[in-house]
Design a protein that fits this description.
By secondary structure, the chain is an alpha/beta fold. The chain contains seven helices and seven strands, in the order H-H-E-H-H-E-E-H-E-E-E-H-E-H.
Length: 185
Amino acid sequence: MMRFKKKKVRKQRGSTYHGWGRGASHHKGAGNRGGRGRAGTGKRADAKKPSFWKEPTGKRGFTSKSRMAMKAINLVDVYDNLAEWVNKGFASKTAAGYDVDLKKAGYDKLLGTGEAGEFKEKLFIITDFASINSVAKVKEAGGEVKVLKTIVKKEKKKPVKHKKAENSEKADEVEAGQKEEPEEN
């Protein structure tokens, strides 16, 4: 009869796992994976490469915190949806024409795509933002656009020369001029 020798596990006492039994617990480091993220994509033949062939590498732009997500609609589409919007309550028919509230319809901006001759109905539109073209076309048809908000663009400041440098140059010129004058007299 053969006797089996007991394995010494003194070094691993107190650790959660003894030996390499449960592989996931022992081989979970980045070194075993060949790096974190895309690191190691070139290792071991085509092990990881095909999954990254189509994706561009490197940083791609940034997202501005002040960016506004606007939903816009063209003037042509406003005319097309007019009858439906009256039923839904986004627009109302008056003696003068149609009162349209684009905010109720879920739009933030009015754009002016379409020919001015197409627009026969007078529209009185309330919107947060509108393009200059759309406002002109609605006015041409006899309507009006009331713009509630405007985007104010910040002007870039021109670089200013340091005053110390300018003053010292002028002072040098003045001193040079004063020194020359007394010598000539």
